[in-house]
Amino acid sequence: MKLTHFLTSLSLECASQIAHATLAHARQAGMLPLAVAVLDVRGTLKAYLAEDGTSLYRQEIAQGKALGALGMGFGGQELERRAGLMPLFMNAVQALSGGNLVPVQGGVLVRDAQGELLGAVGVSGELSSKDEQAAVAGITSVGLVADCGAPKP
What range does the record give for the signal peptide (predicted)? Predict the structure, then answer.
């Protein structure tokens, strides 16, 4: 019996569109300069953009937000909530991941209409809640679903 499973993921073109739309939203909203990292379902960096004026560690922070969401399976809102409830556990996961987990808003999972995980977007440069808004705008601009980890109603 031969089993074949293909991971559904973000294309390079889609990742690039998300990154550009994220920054376009930020400019329209008057946000501080942002960095955006778009990862595929394997955690591979597919697109990265940083606006002029971003500070030194914005790439690492944006990528850490996206990797944290992918690695834990839920968006930054839930990561942030759990970090407050279980700081020792989150510290352990940060250590195990080599520091590639930033447990705050701004790390957003990307899903298709059926809920299939395609990747994640991480944004850094503004307040974390605004970073998240920009990521959501970028994801939804290409017709995909943003999963921030917010509690389901």
Answer: none
Domain ranges across the chain: 12-147
Q: Are strands 35-40 and 45-50 parallel, antiparallel or unpaired?
A: antiparallel
Site of tokens 């352990």:
92
State the DSSP H helix or E strand holding residue 104, giving kind and residue range, or none if neither.
none
143: left (phi over 0), alpha (psi -120 to 50) or beta: left
Summarised one tens digit per residue, pLDDT across range 86-115 is 999 999 999 999 989 999 999 999 999 999
Q: What percent of the chain shows pLDDT beyond 90?
A: 90
Cα Rg of the chain (Å, integer): 15
How would CATH label the architecture of 12-147?
Answer: 2-Layer Sandwich (3.30)
pLDDT at 153: 62
Among candidates 11, 66, 12, which has minimal Cα distance to 43? 66
